[in-house]
Amino acid sequence: MIVSFITGLGSSIQGLVTDVLTDEKKPAASAPPHAEPAVPLKVVAIPEEGGTFLVSEQRVTSPEDRAVLINGATTQEEWERLLRKIKATSIHKTAYKVAVTNVSSSTVRVVDIVPVITRRTAAIDTTMIEPLGGTESDSIPVQLNLDNRYPKFTQNGKPYFTRQSQVLKAGEGFVMAVEAKLLGREYAEYHLKVNYLDKKGNPRSLEVNEPGTGVGVFRVSGTVDDKEYADYWGAEKDGRGRRLYSREERK
After folding, report:
1. How far is the C-alpha of 229 from the C-alpha of 39, rounded, in Å?
2. At 36, is the pLDDT very low, low, confident or very high (cuts 50, 70, 90)?
3. Fewest CB atoms within 10 A around its CB: which of 8, 92, 174, 230?
4. Distance between the two ends of the chain, CA-based, in angstroms?
5. How far is 59 from 82, CA to CA, in rounded Å?
6. Model pTM above 0.90
7. How far apart are CA 2 and CA 126, in angstroms?
8. What are phi and psi of 146, to 5 degrees?
9. Centroid of chain to Cα 122
10. What is the DSSP string of 1-63?
């Protein structure tokens, strides 16, 4: 596969990887022995790993789950299981890569990738989980400002796809490394929609999500004051674990 990179790395914990194809129409009856795929594009969204502040609409109540937070030195599998269970969400920003590949034998032109906001509410104020060991630095040229009502992917402050498109020959692809930010006091969920022109120049769209499963759905939350969270799991002074801080301690 030939891949052209829009470079940049980021950090976040976002428990989802999507590799979704959505059928738009069936192949013609006279298809060749190696029939063309119903959709010429394959889209994969891969979260970047790293330390970040996390919030959840659920409280961590069971002794087993609390032990994962308190001990700190837990296995990666236990940590990821807990994050999936409580649907943990990064605050203010998430980072991920979007890989788009032409899996057909014809040339297609990707003209836009659009974030589709499916939920926008007040910022999550139930559970806050601090990272241990600090956060990683980011340097990402492709950004998404979710504080905008109709956000677009930008590069150097300008919409990326209004300046150029991606022409993909058979087997070619490209990768966007994205940093999505939401700095206000809201919470947002969204998935991606890829707009492209097929081999005949007809406009098509590919929704990259699976409704009802959570696959392909990105989540990010703004913050509230520390004392507003129902539960605040802060780091111990030695940095080796966490404990539940009372509202009085957070003032």
Report:
1. 44
2. confident
3. 230
4. 54
5. 11
6. no
7. 45
8. -80, -5
9. 19
10. -EEEEE--B--------EEE----SPPPTT--SSPPPSSSEEEEEEEPP----EEESS---SH
CA distance 183 to 93: 8
pLDDT per residue over 41-52, tens digit each?
988 887 765 557
Exposure pattern of 14-38 as b/e (b: 16+ CB <10 Å)?
bbbebebeeeeeeeeeeeeeeeeee
Count of CA atoms in the C-beta half-sphere (13 A) of 174:
18
Residue where the block lists tokens 């052209």: 4
Question: Residue 39: its pLDDT value, please?
Answer: 87
Question: Which pair of structure tokens corresponds to residue 91?
Answer: 């605050």
Residue with tokens 């269970």: 85
Question: pLDDT class for 94, splitting at 50, 70, 90?
Answer: confident
pLDDT in tens, 149-166: 999 999 888 998 988 898
Nearest partner of 145 among 215, 222, 207, judged by Cα: 222
Q: Are strands 108-122 and 18-20 parallel, antiparallel or unpaired?
A: unpaired
